[in-house]
What we know:
- This protein is α/β, with parallel strands linked by helices.
- The protein has an eight-stranded mixed β-sheet with strand order 8-9-10-7-11-12-13-14.
- The protein contains nine helices and 14 strands.
- It is globular and about 60 Å long.
- The protein has helices spanning about 15-25, 40-50, 60, 80-90, 105-115, 130-140, 175-190, 285-300, 310-325; strands at about 5-10, 30-35, 55, 70, 90-95, 120-125, 145-155, 195-205, 210-220, 225-230, 230-240, 245-250, 260-265, 275-280.
Amino acid sequence: MPKVRWGVLGVAKIATEKVIPAMQRGEWSAVTAIASRDPEKARAAAARLGIARSYGSYDELIADPDIDAIYNPLPNDLHVPWTIRAAERGKHVLCEKPIALSAAEARTLIAARDRTGVRIQEAFMVRTHPQWSKVRELVREGAIGELHAMVGVFSFFNRDPANIRNLPASGGGALMDIGCYLINTSRFVFEREPARVSGLIERDPGMGVDRLTSLMLDYESGHAVGTCSTQMVPFQRIQILGTTGRLELEIPFNAPPDRPCRIVRDTGADLFGAGRTVIEVDTCNQYTIQGDLFSKAIVEDEAVPVPLEDAVQNMACIDAVVRSAASGRWEVPQ
């Protein structure tokens, strides 16, 4: 079976600690090169991870004729420019979330994709995890009756002013870093776009990034409500509620690769859990699955699992949250 030869832009923690090791275990993916603006960092990462080649610049890597696809985990403000540069070199690109700083910027990637003929996808790894596929299957089957609400929380604590997540110019802040998951998964479960969006933002007085953001997405048939924060206790949880039951994802986003995930299904028989059953989802690595599905699409000349247009729609919702927080009104994603 031919494997797609991957190059990685940068030595970001998510790449070196999570994505690269996971993709190296894939059936369709081979990580063969890594680049950094610091050649020594690239060499050290390559040696540590068993990667054959390292480059001291991103341009050198995307010019390598032996690289088929690029994984782009650079800071948010570098997602679009380097994805376009890679596409123009004929490389397929899997780009970390959020794929852009706005819906308008994300649309430039559609133009680049169509112009160059390469595949480009936003790396929302949760879309490939079986627990989310199972949840959507249960909702479709009517396991909770009519879907009416989805409620989520995603938070961690990081007040380091030098951290990329706390730099406004780099696209930092809670909404862009983790609130995007609340939006993306609600769109996945409701299987439609929200008619309108409301948002409330509290910004760090020193760093300027949003440290606490709450949002509501009106799907007309139901609502998705979420809160995200970069300055709260680390926590994540999703509740999906219908007319006759609910589903709970215990670790919805950072799903562990070394143990099963659990979905709680509750009929609401009583408030003490008499109607609860637990569905275990087999141990897997969502980054391995994500990389292999993208690679398989390249090898077999198929469409990627999640089209780039979906990334634009997600960015439109993020934009609407920001506009709503400023206007104090409901905003329509556009």
